[in-house]
């Protein structure tokens, strides 16, 4: 776009807060936020840095999304940066994002909290506090009966599910409510998210008063707490959040930049003691040039370098994380919208010049400088395998005891660290076939992803515990479901990384090999742990043998692995198990 094209596009934009994207074909080049969309986009007609000028020249369109508040614009910008990874933005290498609420495009719309809304859905948000959003959604469901089940669960039902019995849904699936009445209830939910607080607060208040009159004080207290959340919901960080005077938690940030790589070190102090430290890598195009900051956020190129990195990190990092009571920074970030957001959330922001706080900032800076410019193991793995990214990896393994208590594990690593909240596991059909078990496990994961039933982002890479056979079974499952995600296998014996085309034998000290090993080993540990739990819970024919209680059964299966092996064991072997005497051993042999 030339300068005239930018001015023409800006002239058609509203003077409202929102987010804009410079696009080239289907690619997002840059995402920015604005208090006044028209004024901000118009400023790009005269960019003050060569980097931003190149971005504008490449762009062929500007897309916008209007938001209700400046804070929503701030958070939506962070979500879009994480989703599209635009070349010209400072980008934190993690996958956190802010929660949104969507009402799906369905004959009976579903309400759900999501970080990745459907393009066809009616979407509200983003919001800063997931717990607050979930409280409101539950209150809406209890009041208006909007369904929360998946489309798969909704289809072809012949009777209402448990949500109907619990008063969370009016069961449009079985026509317990007419389509017209259900649509009216959905419209009421929409009106709440559009700002009509009373449409939910009023029925909650009436219900609370009734509970109090009936002396059901516990219910009344719960409703009171829910009502308070609803009444401050549209403030999103105003009345709902108050500053904590004693500053229990303080985060200290240090920034180091080398070329287009940046590192932010974060130290966490609680009650005056350091309790945690971590480093985060960012891609910061042009950050080393103080005249080439993210145009459109602080004005065209007015602020770059450390302030630009700090401003981007603060919003992108604290998505889905609790803000501290105070932030200590090496210098001001210079972003007015970020400042307003932090003030509304009750966070004290300081740039200390001397004393203990200044020493903490110096320590954070030293930590940041130790890491800046280093090639991370995720990047090394991506390069070695020819992938765009290997930041998000999922590992898979199966476990069973000669075909019994078969289970599968699905673990997740993000930026080289285990993300345990994204672990999943599945009980499989009992069979002594590792290849078929792996096929079933991967087909389950892939189908959930393709059908939108898995709320996790798609991974960059799948790591299969096993060799060529397990990898082939996994790839067949992915092809059956048409889920296009690269997969490799890691064989234990020789630590070979197997791809569909070749094998890699990386040095023992290669960081990217260590990453694959951690994923593989964690998938194995998680599978074995679940298998042991299932095995101990499974009722077997041993339960019907007089004299064999739960503890003895557990010892027998632990010793012999399966009921079949117990059946084939000799009397002497059986009696070697603690708790199994001669009479019990003879009974086991006769009954089995």
From TrEMBL:
Residues annotated as domain UVR: 198-233
Compartments, record wording: Cytoplasm
Gene3D superfamilies: 5' to 3' exonuclease, C-terminal subdomain, GIY-YIG endonuclease, UVR domain, UvrC, RNAse H endonuclease domain
Region Disordered, annotated ranges: 275-302
UniProt xrefs under SUPFAM superfamilies: C-terminal UvrC-binding domain of UvrB, GIY-YIG endonuclease, RuvA domain 2-like
SMART domains: GIYc, HhH1
A single BP term in Gene Ontology: nucleotide-excision repair
Gene Ontology MF term list: DNA binding; excinuclease ABC activity
GIY-YIG domain mapped to chain residues: 15-90
Classification via InterPro entries: GIY-YIG_endonuc (IPR000305), GIY-YIG_endonuc_sf (IPR035901), GIY-YIG_UvrC_Cho (IPR047296), Hlx-hairpin-Hlx_DNA-bd_motif (IPR003583), RuvA_2-like (IPR010994), UVR_dom (IPR001943), UVR_dom_sf (IPR036876), UvrABC_protein_C (IPR050066)
Swiss-Prot/TrEMBL keywords: Cytoplasm, DNA damage, DNA excision, DNA repair, Excision nuclease, SOS response
Domain UvrC family homology region profile as annotated: residue spans: 252-478
GO cellular component terms given for this protein: cytoplasm; excinuclease repair complex
Keyword DNA damage: yes
Keyword Nucleotidyltransferase: no
Superkingdom field: Archaea
Subunit structure as annotated in this protein's UniProt entry: Interacts with UvrB in an incision complex.
NCBIfam families referenced in this protein's UniProt entry, alphabetically: PRK14668.1, uvrC
Role played: The UvrABC repair system catalyzes the recognition and processing of DNA lesions. UvrC both incises the 5' and 3' sides of the lesion. The N-terminal half is responsible for the 3' incision and the C-terminal half is responsible for the 5' incision.
The family this protein is said to belong to: Belongs to the UvrC family.
Name listed for the protein in its UniProt record: UvrABC system protein C
Organism: Natrarchaeobaculum sulfurireducens
């Amino acid at each position: 776009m030339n300068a005239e094209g930018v001015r023409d596009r800006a002239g058609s934009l509203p003077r409202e807060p929102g987010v804009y994207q410079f696009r080239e074909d289907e690619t997002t080049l840059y995402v920015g936020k604005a208090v006044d969309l028209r004024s901000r986009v118009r400023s790009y007609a005269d960019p003050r840095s060569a980097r931003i000028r190149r971005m504008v020249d490449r762009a062929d369109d500007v897309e916008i999304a209007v938001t209700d508040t400046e804070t929503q614009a701030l958070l939506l910008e962070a979500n879009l940066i994480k989703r599209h990874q635009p070349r010209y933005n400072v980008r934190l290498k993690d996958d956190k994002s802010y929660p949104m609420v969507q009402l799906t495009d369905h004959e009976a719309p579903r309400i759900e909290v999501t970080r990745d809304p459907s393009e066809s859905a009616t979407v509200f948000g983003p919001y800063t506090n997931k717990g607050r959003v979930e409280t409101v959604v539950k209150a809406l469901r209890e009041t208006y009966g909007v369904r929360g089940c998946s489309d798969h669960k909704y289809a072809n039902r012949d009777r209402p599910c448990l949500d109907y019995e619990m008063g969370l849904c009016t069961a449009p699936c079985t026509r317990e409510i007419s389509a017209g009445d259900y649509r009216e209830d959905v419209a009421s939910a929409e009106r709440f998210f559009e700002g009509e607080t009373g449409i939910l607060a009023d029925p909650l208040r009436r219900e609370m008063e009734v509970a109090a009159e009936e002396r059901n004080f516990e219910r009344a207290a719960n409703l009171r707490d829910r009502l308070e959340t609803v009444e401050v919901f549209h403030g999103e960080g105003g009345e709902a959040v108050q500053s904590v005077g004693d500053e229990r938690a303080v985060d200290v940030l240090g920034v180091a930049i080398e070329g287009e790589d940046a590192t932010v070190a974060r130290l966490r102090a609680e009650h005056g003691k350091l309790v945690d430290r971590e480093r985060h890598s960012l891609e910061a195009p042009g950050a080393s040039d103080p005249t080439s900051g993210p145009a459109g956020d602080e004005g065209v190129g007015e602020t770059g370098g450390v302030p630009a990195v700090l401003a981007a990190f603060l919003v992108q990092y604290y998505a889905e994380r609790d803000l501290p009571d105070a932030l200590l920074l090496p210098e001001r970030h210079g972003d007015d919208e970020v400042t307003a957001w932090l003030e509304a959330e009750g966070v004290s922001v300081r740039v200390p010049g001397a004393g203990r706080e200044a020493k903490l900032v110096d320590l954070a800076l030293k930590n940041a400088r130790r890491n800046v410019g280093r090639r991370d193991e995720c990047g090394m793995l991506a390069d070695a395998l020819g992938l765009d990214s290997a930041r998000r990896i999922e590992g898979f393994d199966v476990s069973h005891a000669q075909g019994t208590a078969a289970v599968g594990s699905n673990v997740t690593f993000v930026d080289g660290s285990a993300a345990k909240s994204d672990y999943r596991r599945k009980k499989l059909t009992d069979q002594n076939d590792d290849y078929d078990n792996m096929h079933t496990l991967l087909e389950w994961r892939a189908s959930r992803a393709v059908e939108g039933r898995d709320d996790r982002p798609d991974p960059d890479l799948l790591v299969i515990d096993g060799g060529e056979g397990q990898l082939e079974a996994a790839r067949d499952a992915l092809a059956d479901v048409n889920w296009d995600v690269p997969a490799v296998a890691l064989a234990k014996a020789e630590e070979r990384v197997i791809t569909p085309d070749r094998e890699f034998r990386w040095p023992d000290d290669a960081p990217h090999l260590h990453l694959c090993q951690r994923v593989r080993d964690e998938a194995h540990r998680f599978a074995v742990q679940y298998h042991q739990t299932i095995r101990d819970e499974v009722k077997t024919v041993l339960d019907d043998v007089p004299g064999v209680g739960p503890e003895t059964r557990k010892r027998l299966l632990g010793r012999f692995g399966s009921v079949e092996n117990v059946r084939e064991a000799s009397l002497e072997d059986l009696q070697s198990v603690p708790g199994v005497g001669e009479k019990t051993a003879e009974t086991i042999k006769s009954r089995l």
